[in-house]
Design a protein that fits this description.
With 176 residues, this protein is mostly helical. It has eight helices and no strands.
Length: 176
């Protein structure tokens, strides 16, 4: 979302800067900055901050088990966020719009770990919440990803999707 926030929020601004840094390729620095913000926020801090931090921290882990831990934290925090808090941050956001992405990420991680029953539950939840997505390129991106993950679950495919957000797996080839 590119519109101006309703209320200035230094933590959300810092998260945005770290995410931009990570997307530009400096994932180690982005992870350090987000982890520092996570520590400062604490497990009982602002649920919007916790949800956002955990959501983006998950994207910085190529290992699906590590990403899963952060995605679980993101969903847990989303369940504690109020619509009023979301509106305070940004009038154009709706809490309901968070859930398709959160459940999609959980489904994809469970799938990559071979836990297809859990993956199926979360992809069904993502699909159930998909009507809450905006009718724009972001919403289209998530609807496509929901279909891709659902198809991968059906195929029992555990490979990382080429279109998945976040850090690609480390190069594990051995040079001889």
């Amino acid at each position: 979302m590119t519109a101006t926030p309703t209320t200035p929020d230094p933590t959300m601004e810092a998260i945005g800067h770290a995410v931009t840094e990570g997307r530009a390729g400096d994932t180690a620095s982005a992870r350090r900055k987000l982890l520092a913000l996570w520590s400062a926020t604490g497990v009982t801090g602002d649920p919007l901050h916790r949800c956002t931090l955990a959501h983006y921290l998950a994207d910085l882990h190529a290992d699906p088990a590590q990403a899963l831990a952060w995605d679980i934290r993101a969903l847990d925090a989303a369940d504690a966020v109020t619509e009023q808090r979301v509106q305070q941050h940004h009038a154009g956001l709706r809490l309901a719009g968070f859930y398709p992405s959160l459940h999609l990420n959980l489904a994809d991680n469970y799938r990559r770990l071979g836990s297809f029953e859990a993956a199926t539950e979360h992809i069904a939840a993502a699909a159930k919440h998909a009507p809450d997505l905006p009718q724009d390129s972001y919403g289209d991106l998530l609807r496509t990803a929901i279909r891709e993950v659902a198809e991968a679950i059906t195929r029992r495919d555990t490979a990382r999707r080429a279109s998945a957000p976040g850090t690609p797996p480390e190069n594990t080839t051995v040079q001889t």
